[in-house]
Amino acid sequence: MDSAVISLLGAFTLSILGLFAFIWSLRQGLLVENPRGASVIFAQGEIGRVDDPAWSARDQVQVPSNAAPFGVRNTLHTRTEIDADDIRDRMEADQSSAFPVFMFIMFACFWLLLGSVAGWMASVKLHEPDWLTQFAWLSFGRVRTLHLNAVIYGWSSNACLAVIVWVLPRLLRTRLAGIPWVMLGGSLLNAGISAGLGAIAMGWSDGMEFLEIPWQIDLLIFAGFALIVLPVLYTLTRKRVDHLYVSVWYFVAALLWITLLFLVANLPGVHTGVQQATTNWWYGHNALGLWFTPVSVGTIYYFLPKVIGRPVRSYNLSLLGFWTLAFFYGQVGGHHLIGGPVPGWLTTLSIVQSVMMVIPVMAFSINQAGTLKGQMHLARYSPTLRFMMFGGLMYVASSLEGSLEALRTVNAITHFTHFTVAHAHLGMYAFVSMVLFGALYFMMPRVLNWEWPHPWLISLHFWLAAIGIGIYVIGLSIGGWLQGLAMLDATRPFIESVTLTMPYLKSRSVGGTLMTLGHVVFVVHMLMMALRFGPRRTTAALFKLPSQVSHAQ
User: Fold this and answer.
1) Which of 74, 151, 399, 499 could form a disulfide linkage to 361, CB 3.0–4.6 angstroms apart?
2) pLDDT tens, residue by residue, 406-433
3) Confidence band, pLDDT 50/70/90 cuts, at residue 320
4) What letter would DSSP give residue 551?
């Protein structure tokens, strides 16, 4: 029995076990609405209080009367005194995680800049192929791969770990355990990323998308993930809450999933031939769906209600989204092999599960819309909410597009075209990265106990990123669709399918330039804050006694 079949059977067995766990949860009253469970992210007296340390002093004066829990018109009549003990627990949790979180964020910023420059260079090379051809390590194949690994493992994974390590102690009302091990794990992870990118630049690669880093170096990355998982699980056992909020489910599951996925996909000498391609896309799609997606969705479920001072509309829908994501995502990657030398049942199973992903996506979108009802105007003031709303909307768009793209009739046009690249960036950037940006804007003032020096730079970053990714995705989607139609037309020479994409590839570079400028603004602002540059502000982000603040901490 080959490795691909073993992997699929293993995933199927885990899904069956998960189904039984889900049935048991139903018997325990999972579908009984639980307002108390939805409110555990708030300290006593916080519901009805808007909260974002990134907004300007002017906005803070305007906002407090604009937020209200469901069915309440005026928050000023519903507020109670914030519980000092709850705030103290949260401050201790934040202080325990501050140093490792700062480490992950700094690594993330470094890899974001490096990956952005490499991605911009790769984009330009698509319509200027003779540019920088004298250097082998700057050839398109290597630069594009450097970009992919820098942003997937360097930027996104470090930012995800920063969010997990910061939010979990808050939700568990306890200090982060095993801080030295988390720091060691983060160091090994980033040492592996550095060595892996160096190997790729020199031409040493395993040659599979998302798995290009040589397996000998992957040992460092796996060890890093494993050393981070253990303290997180130990912290979970020390929880001081009666209920685990849904974000805890998403975060812990995502950490376990990526560690197992990375180990199985990189086993040396096990996956060969066609089975290797199957395992490649099993891992590649699950890295998005079982690592970045659950972390990002869990992030939205924490920060979005926290900012507007309102519990999530339906706690049951949030749990339904978690379980259906776990059930249906495992085999989605097989639709990338439609038309390939793989069994028909495998691609059919993948198509079915891709379409079934509509369920968790709709559960999330209905929940998000219900929670934000009447409060969307707060995005004018809250940078975190602005990024979260944008990312949540793009999650729905990218997931629904992915379900359609898995259908054989659509796949026949989009496969092997730039449309797939546009779809990947709609998910990984417009959804995942925008959510992570919003979370970091909320977290950093409380990690460093300092204000953002120039809030207008946050708005500049948002619009550069949003407009840039809009140009990028729209241009490549149109160009990719036309490219696919041209390749299917036997009367048209293949070169025509290449030349017609040139205007759209140039629009890709324009969008990428705006996104890269946004990243420079983000990192420079981050360094200004870390180095205490800019005007000192002493408003929302600094912890004070509850009686001294008008916003929840």
Assistant:
1) 399
2) 999 999 999 999 999 999 999 999 999 9
3) confident
4) S
Nearest to 262, CA basis, from 297, 287, 238, 298: 287
φ, ψ at 182 (rounded to 5°): -65, -45
Which residues touch 320 (CB under 8 Å, ≥6 apart)? 359, 360, 363
CA 93/CA 452 separation, integer angstroms: 21
Q: pLDDT value at position 37?
A: 74
Asked if 254 and 295 touch (Cβ cutoff 8 Å), the reply is yes
Which pair of tokens denotes residue 68? 């209200």
Q: Is 328 helix (H, G, I), strand (E, B) or coil?
A: helix
With b meaning 16 or more CB within 10 Å and e meaning fewer, what string describes 282-312?
bbbbbbbbbbbbbbbbbbbbbbbbbbbbbbb
Query: Using an 8 Å Cβ cutoff, are 479 and 134 in contact?
Result: no
- CA 168 to each of CA 328, 445, 545: distance values in angstroms, whole numbers, following the listed order: 26, 18, 23
Residues constituting the chain: 553
pTM of this structure: 0.90
Whether the pLDDT of residue 79 is over 50: the answer is no
